[in-house]
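Quick one, C-alpha cells below:
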C-alpha cells in the first residue's frame, strides 16, 4: 500500500518533526502494510498555523467558488473510487463489495451534497429590522475514528469547507492511509494551500494537542464516550465550540403488526454490515412475546449467511476483537442464550469474531446497555407497546433506531416517543441530507445535510 512519509500541511507534504512512525496492519491477515509518521504537538501547531493563515482567504471566497472546489473534490473521489475501496479493505478489512458501495461510494454522495449546499444555502437572512449573517466559525480540528475511514472525514471536512472554515484533521491511527488518499484528493481538486491539513498520529498525542490548541475554534470529534467526554471538558474550559458523535445502542422495534421476516432480515443485515462496527447499528432487536421465538429462529438463520472471511470481515484490530469476544462471554455469563456464533475466533488468522445472536437478553444486562461494536445482535422480549418504549429508551444512548409496524402512521407514532436522533420507518432508505447525531449521551451536534453545515457557522446580526 502507498504511504506518505510526511504530513500534508499548507498545501504540501512536509517531513514530520519527530522520528516515530505508526505501523498500519491489515486486520484480515495481520500483516504490516505500511508506515505513517506519528505526529507530535509541533506538527499539529504547524498545521493549525497553516489553517489559520488560509482562513481569511477561504472565508472570503464567494459560496459559488467554494462550491466549485468541493465539486472538484467530489469528482476526484469518484474517479479514484477503486483505489479508495482497496485502501479501506487493506486497513479496515471490509469485504470489497462493501468498500466499493459504502466506504468509497457514500463519501462521493456526501461531498456532492455539500457542493450543492454551498451554492444554494442562505448565508444571510432578514429578521425584522435585522440582517443576520451566517459566518464560518474559523479553524476546525477534526478527529475521526476508523470504522468508516473516509465517510467520517468527509462528513466533517465537506461541510466545514462549504461554510468557509479551514481544517486540521487527525484521523484514527488504524486507518491513516485512507486519510492520506483524501489529502491527495484535496490537492488534486485544487483547494487553496492550508485550507485542509492532515496530521497523522496517536490520539493522546496528536489528537489531544489538536483538541487543546488555542488556534482551533471548533473541535469536531467522533469516537468513544471516554475520549469524547475529555474533549468536551477541554473545549468547555477554553470556551470553544465542540461537536461530539459518541456512538449508540440503537433499538430495532418490531411491533406486533409488522412483517416479521422482513424486519428481522433487514435488522440482521444492519448489525452485521461492517462487522458490526457502526455507531448507529440497531444492536437491540425488540420483539413481542408472542412472536419472540419465531424472530430468534429467523435471526439465527439470517446470521448463518454471514460467513467470516466472505460476507463479513474482521474487526479492525486485536484489541477490538478481544473486547467483543469478552462481551459475548459476559452476555452468556449474565444469562443470555447463545443461538448463533459465540466467543471462539472463527479463523486462525485475522481479527475475526463469529456473527453472534444472543436471545433472552433482558434490559439490564451489560450486553443490552453498552456499545459492543462487533457483529453481535441482542434479541429482547417486550410485553406491550409501553414496555417496548421503556426498553427502547432505557439506555444512556440515543443515536438511531428503527420501527416496523403494520403501517407508517403506527410506526411514526412510536418513533415520536423515542429518545433518539434518527429513526428508519418500515425500512426507510438512507438519506445523505438527513441530520445525523445523538440524543442523550450519544453526542452533541448534527452531521450531514443543511443541519451539518449549520454546525460550522456562527451568526452575526446587523440592526437597521
Ligand atoms: P477512540 O479512542 O475514541 O478514537 C477516536 C479518535 O479519537 C481516534 O482518532 C483516536 O486516535 C482519537 N483519540 C484517542 N484518544 C484521544 C485523546 N485523548 N485526545 C484526542 N483524540 C483522541 O475510539 P477507539 O479506541 O478507536 O474505539 C473504542 C470504542 O469507541 C469502540 O469500541 C466503540 O464503542 C467506540 N467507537 C465509536 C465510534 C463512532 O462512530 N461513534 C467510532 C469508533 C469507535 P487513535 O486512533 O490514535 O486512538
Ligand atoms: Mg483509541
Amino acid at each position: 500500500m502507498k504511504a506518505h512519509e510526511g504530513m500534508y500541511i499548507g498545501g504540501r507534504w512536509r517531513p514530520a518533526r519527530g522520528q516515530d512512525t505508526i505501523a498500519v496492519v491489515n486486520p484480515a491477515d495481520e500483516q504490516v502494510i505500511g508506515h505513517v509518521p506519528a505526529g507530535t504537538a509541533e506538527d499539529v501547531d504547524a498545521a493549525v498555523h497553516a489553517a489559520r493563515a488560509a482562513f481569511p482567504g477561504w472565508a472570503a471566497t464567494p459560496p459559488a467558488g467554494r462550491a466549485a472546489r468541493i465539486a472538484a473534490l467530489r469528482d476526484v473521489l469518484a474517479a479514484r473510487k477503486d483505489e479508495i475501496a482497496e485502501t479501506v479493505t487493506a486497513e479496515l478489512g471490509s469485504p470489497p463489495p462493501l468498500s466499493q458501495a459504502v466506504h468509497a461510494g457514500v463519501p462521493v454522495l456526501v461531498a456532492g451534497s455539500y457542493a450543492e449546499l454551498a451554492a444554494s444555502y442562505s448565508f444571510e437572512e432578514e429578521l425584522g429590522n435585522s440582517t443576520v449573517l451566517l459566518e464560518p466559525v474559523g479553524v476546525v480540528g477534526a478527529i475521526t475514528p476508523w470504522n468508516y475511514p473516509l465517510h467520517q472525514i468527509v462528513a466533517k471536512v465537506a461541510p466545514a469547507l462549504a461554510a468557509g472554515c479551514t481544517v486540521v484533521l487527525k484521523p484514527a491511527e488504524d486507518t491513516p492511509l485512507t486519510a492520506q488518499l483524501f489529502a491527495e484528493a484535496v490537492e488534486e481538486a485544487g483547494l487553496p494551500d492550508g485550507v485542509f491539513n492532515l496530521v497523522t498520529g496517536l490520539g493522546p498525542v496528536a489528537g489531544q494537542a489538536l483538541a487543546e490548541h488555542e488556534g482551533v475554534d471548533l473541535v469536531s470529534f467522533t469516537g468513544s464516550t471516554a475520549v469524547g467526554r475529555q474533549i468536551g471538558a477541554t473545549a468547555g474550559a477554553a470556551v470553544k465550540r465542540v461537536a461530539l458523535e459518541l456512538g449508540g445502542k440503537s433499538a430495532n422495534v418490531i411491533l406486533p403488526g409488522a412483517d416479521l421476516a422482513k424486519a428481522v432480515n433487514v435488522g440482521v443485515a444492519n448489525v452485521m454490515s461492517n462487522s458490526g462496527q457502526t455507531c448507529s447499528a440497531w444492536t437491540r432487536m425488540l420483539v413481542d412475546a408472542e412472536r419472540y421465538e419465531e424472530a430468534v429462529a429467523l435471526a439465527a438463520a439470517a446470521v448463518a449467511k454471514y460467513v467470516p472471511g466472505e460476507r463479513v470481515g474482521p474487526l479492525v484490530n486485536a484489541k477490538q476483537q478481544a473486547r467483543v469476544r469478552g462481551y459475548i462471554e459476559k452476555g452468556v455469563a449474565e444469562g443470555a442464550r447463545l443461538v448463533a456464533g459465540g466467543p471462539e475466533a472463527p479463523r486462525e488468522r485475522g481479527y475475526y469474531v463469529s456473527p453472534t445472536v444472543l436471545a433472552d437478553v433482558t434490559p439490564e444486562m451489560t450486553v443490552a446497555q453498552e456499545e459492543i461494536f462487533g457483529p453481535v445482535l441482542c434479541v429482547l422480549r417486550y410485553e406491550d407497546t409501553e414496555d417496548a418504549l421503556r426498553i427502547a429508551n432505557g439506555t444512556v444512548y440515543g443515536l438511531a433506531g428503527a420501527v416496523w409496524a403494520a403501517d407508517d402512521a403506527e410506526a411514526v407514532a412510536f418513533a415520536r416517543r423515542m429518545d433518539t436522533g434518527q429513526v428508519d420507518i418500515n425500512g426507510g432508505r438512507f438519506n445523505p441530507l438527513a441530520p445525523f447525531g445523538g440524543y442523550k449521551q450519544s453526542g452533541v451536534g448534527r452531521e450531514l445535510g443543511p443541519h451539518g453545515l449549520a454546525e460550522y457557522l456562527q451568526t452575526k446580526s446587523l440592526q437597521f
